[in-house]
Design a protein that fits this description.
With 518 residues, the chain is an alpha/beta fold. It is built from 19 helices and 14 strands.
């Protein structure tokens, strides 16, 4: 038999399911788990027990992946191959984000993924992620589809499944003394396991958070409302960390306009490090996994003129009549530059003056400091710090240029908040206030971390310490309490207080203002 015949036989021969599953399991271990083993190696002792932990991780991952691949292929055949191919591409993309941004693929991160729109997802595009997907995901998938598989008998399949389960059970039992170590590191370990991290946490997100936050729990009606004409502008910032605000002691002058406005800067910490849960906390009256009637919906239902303007997403359902996205505002105001968040602040004076109600709440949800394309979020006239990073692969960027790009978004934020203050000064017949608070902070390379989304229990200060900035008009006759710290859940009660609205659930301890307006 010649070479041609041998090759033909090889192409037509079948590979046993056990071999295919072993190859896939070994490939998954080697190709996608360097960050996992790097973390484990850095956190075990250099002794026999430490090496046993590492070996145990290898065995249990090989056995579990082997079990899943075997069952998928035996039960699903072509469908099983398709599911495995999708998981390989998913593994490759997740590995890119772990390598590039040092993210944890946990429940919060999967929530971010499911609430990300195309415009945000496209900002992460680079040729590197395509290479990851092609080389680590698509090529092995093509190999899998080329294989003709000998699936064997039912008894053989049961024997393979039994062996895999015995290995998993034996390894688990052999690590009973390491239960404390595993429990302590489980959040990080679990976030680096492919494909378990994104599959399990996708299910966790959908079943526990998504379903629990679709329908609001109504709150008791307003008991009393003051007679004064008031307007409150609540600006929810995106990824703004207090560390880069000169109002909080940053060496660079990033807030010259707000400083001249005489604002009050309160030390604050975010309740979460992802937009979805953080904005919910800002708009809700108390911490809860359930969804109570959020601030704009509650006030609108009780007779307040509420306006919602946004260039962002990931918020609970908003039920107000005057709700505008940046795209909708671009159609209303074609003369405004819709590329930046300034469109959200366009013609606010007319919006307020046209209201026929005594109480007005304007909520503005921005996108200004969201990465990784920080440079694209600020207009040219606000680029005070140059050169700036213009790459989405921020881990490879010059750190000084990355900071420049981020700081320019803070300079632009300073201008946007100042523009609202100037607008309100032109409406002296209303008591007015501006509240700016960020949903969470941002990592810019500190400790090898970038952007945000780390679970709060493990998140660094850069992702938790946020600006909470307040301005009140002279005729408001209200000051800000000398608080040592505050947070997201202060917003609801502070807005109620300023607008002179009394409710059964009002919490004075969460109010930032010195006196009631009633």
């Amino acid at each position: 038999m010649g070479l041609k015949g041998w090759c033909a036989n090889r192409l037509n021969s079948k590979m046993r399911l056990m071999v295919v599953s072993l190859v896939l399991s070994a490939y998954t271990l080697v190709a996608f788990h360097f960050p996992f083993f790097s973390y484990v190696a850095d956190n075990v002792s250099n002794d026999i027990n430490g090496w046993w932990i590492v070996c145990s991780m290898v065995l249990i991952m090989l056995a579990l992946n082997y079990l899943i691949y075997y069952l998928l292929l035996y039960v699903g055949r072509v469908v099983g191959k398709s599911i495995i191919a999708i998981s390989l591409v998913g593994n490759a993309v997740c590995l890119y984000f772990i390598d590039t941004y040092n993210v944890l693929i946990d429940k919060s991160m999967m929530g971010n993924v499911f609430n990300t729109q195309f415009s945000e997802a496209s900002s992460f595009f680079s040729w590197t992620v395509i290479l990851y997907a092609l080389l680590l995901g698509v090529l092995p998938s093509l190999w899998l589809f080329r294989q003709r598989v000998d699936y064997g008998s039912v008894w053989r399949s049961l024997a393979n499944v039994a062996v895999a389960l015995v290995v998993v059970g034996g390894v688990v039992a052999g690590n009973y003394k390491n239960t404390f170590w595993i429990d302590r590191h489980a959040p990080v370990i679990g976030s680096k396991l492919m494909p378990w991290s994104y599959t399990v946490n996708s299910i966790r997100y959908y079943t526990h958070w998504r379903r629990a936050n679709q329908k609001e729990i109504p709150l008791p009606d307003v008991e009393e409302m003051s007679k004064s004409k008031d307007v409150c502008v609540l600006i929810i910032g995106e990824s703004a960390r207090s560390e880069n605000f000169s109002l909080y002691g940053y060496a660079r002058e990033t807030n010259p306009l707000m400083k001249s406005d005489g604002v009050t800067a309160i030390k604050a910490q975010a309740s979460h490090t992802n937009t979805m849960e953080a904005v919910k906390a800002i708009l809700q009256h108390k911490p809860s996994r359930e969804l109570y009637e959020i601030l704009p919906n509650y006030l609108s239902r009780n007779g307040v003129d509420v306006v919602w303007r946004t260039s962002n997403w990931g918020t609970p359902p908003i039920h107000v009549e005057k709700q505008f996205s940046n795209k909708a505002l671009a159609k209303i105001y074609p003369e405004a530059d819709s590329r930046y968040d300034g469109i959200l602040f366009h013609d606010l004076k007319h919006q307020i003056l046209s209201s026929d109600k005594d109480k007005v709440l304007i909520c503005i949800h921005t996108y200004t400091s969201h990465g990784p394309e920080y440079y694209s979020n600020s207009p040219e006239e606000f680029k005070h710090f140059l050169p700036e990073c213009r790459s989405v692969e921020v881990q490879n960027a010059d750190h000084a240029e990355l900071i420049n790009a981020y700081d320019n978004t803070i300079v632009y934020t300073d201008y946007l908040v100042h523009s609202v203050i100037e607008t309100l000064r032109e409406i002296p017949d209303r008591r007015s206030c501006v509240i700016f608070i960020s949903d969470h902070g941002e990592s810019l390379g500190e400790g090898g971390l970038y952007m945000h989304g780390i679970s709060k229990g493990m998140a660094p200060s850069e992702q938790l310490d946020i600006p909470f900035i307040v301005w009140t008009s002279d005729n408001a006759n209200v000051g800000v309490k000398p608080l040592e710290s505050a947070g997201h859940h202060h917003i609801y009660h502070s807005v109620l207080n300023f607008l002179g609205i009394r409710t059964p659930f009002y919490d004075e301890s969460k109010n930032i203002f010195e006196c009631h307006s009633l």
